[in-house]
Amino acid sequence: MSRRSFRRGGALLAVASLALAAPAATAQTAPADQQRQRAFAAAAEEFGVPENVLLGVSFLESRWDSNAGTPSTAAGYGPMHLTDLRAAGTGGSHHDEGGEDPRGDGRRSELHPSSPGPAPATPQLQTIDRAAQLIGTSAETLRQDPVQNIRGGAALLADYQRQTGARGETPADWYGAVTRYGDGSSFADEVFETLKTGVDRVTDDGQHLTLAPTPGLEPRSREDTKVECPRSVSCESVPAPYQELPGGGYGNHDLANRPQSQKIDYIVIHDTEGYWDDVLKLVQDPTYVSWNYSIRSSDGKIAQHVPTKDVAYHAGNWYVNSKSIGVEHEGFAAKGSWYTEAMYRTSAKLVRYLAGKYGIPLDRAHIIGHDNVPGINPAKIPTMHWDPGPYWDWSHYFDLLGAPFDHGFGLPGSKLITITPDFAANKPAFTGCESPGKPCTPRGSTSQMLRTEPDANAPLLKDAGLHPDGTPSTMDVADVGSRIDAGQRYAVAEVRGDWTAVWYLGQKGWFLNPRKAPTAKPAIGTVVTPKPGKASVPVYGTAYPEASAYPAGRTPQPIVALPYSLQTGQRYSSSGTVGSEYYYATKFDPAEHLVVKGKTRYVQVQFGHRIAYVNADDVQVLPAF
Fold this sequence. Notes:
The protein is an alpha+beta fold. The strands form nine sheets. Strands 5-11-10-13-9-14 form a six-stranded mixed β-sheet, sandwiched between helices. Strands 20-19-18-15-21 form a five-stranded antiparallel β-sheet, with no helix packed on it. Strand 18 (489-496) and strand 19 form a beta hairpin. Helix 9 (175-182) crosses helix 10 (185-197).
């Protein structure tokens, strides 16, 4: 862009309120599916912003989607992610909700601190006011009108550019303004990396946009060497405290020596249900719980709290905690919010780095959501959390991980399938995002519902653990009792026309899987079924050792079956055999900590929405043909 056009943008910015309707009219004259592309071009010209920079900023915030005027997890609205905390509301932390004990171990008292209260309206959470002022319109208009939202974002970006004092003649000159827009250099790095590669996609409301590649633009690298992160992301250390508390307790994690002491098998994806500043305060509270990493929504910035060698209290299941790394994402699954592209991208880079470092398979049996973690006993099942929720785009996330779900499938007719709904087109009628029973705003989801019969009106399945009263599961956004997600693998029980049934919590669960537009694909793998002579097999939420494995003076951890069973004739997807382990850590002195390893072997299975374990001596593992 020329220096002249940049000056022209500044002049137009001063009188933008006189030309509110013109860009909208220009966009409306374009073909129906290219109106948003024209809106970006018009706004870039009007405010003197390089069009590719404007497109890149928007893509990293919203993927150019309008999201039906609903807020993101960081209170952002529209394609340009203009933030409005007043309209989006506030939140605490998902660790404050319900009765889940994040540590997930009866050896120590549960930690349930109070919520931190409302988030403050920081400048990063209230950019819509300045954008509205710059173009002379209302915050409500910017929340609901994508064209005006793009104009407001372009005006704001140009305003930030003037404040930097940079000349703005080339896209590279806009690095400072982009950093300010996304509240961090990690966001700007991701934007410029996207400019280098280009993007072409169709939005949630059918708009086709293209960002042509611009070779030669290189993002900056982080310099902090005190953290365990890939060098291509912005990552800082915000340590969680390990200290003694009055009364003999301690918090908020356990020192360990992984992977020498225990192999790390899982990475658990969470959302915070709180805003960034409050989340960082909570994880630094020694009386609170902990997790290994947090990722900011606005720009994808990463903070590490607990070294990966140590065990954080995050998943509500001590076996999973001791074998996993917990990654929190600033967000609100309960509100049905959408997650930013900047956060998806840096999260995927972090998880890919950690998975490579520790040999963790990039599949949905090992990269799991908090909602996939089982309760350690029947009483804990109703208290388990369900984040990151049905609006986390697992398919897109695994594309970014370099492990897409559309590769490596089996032959037609395989008795094992991978769930693969189209995120944009799949919009289950969930309720309860804002208040109990109220329909959620329809939006893309990687979740599908299972029914008792091949009929869209048939009841949902029953979950004896989540609904011990025997009532069917519901469409409440938090109810995972009859839900399957993209990337998960299930054993096929039956096929009738366009409907497929899978084995799920001891039942057949039916979902629509049309041959012309399939929502699942054949997979290669193994399944488990009871050994001959066994009518049913117990199912467990942990893979703990037998009592005889514990040394003298160490009380064995109970092995408690869940209220489900694997019955003769049923098959469940297997993700491999694991040894039995229990990390005995009940005292502050790590010299007292001990990993107990038993002779019992377990097989991990996809038993419902959550993973589970069965004793390897009870089942046979078979290839899925």
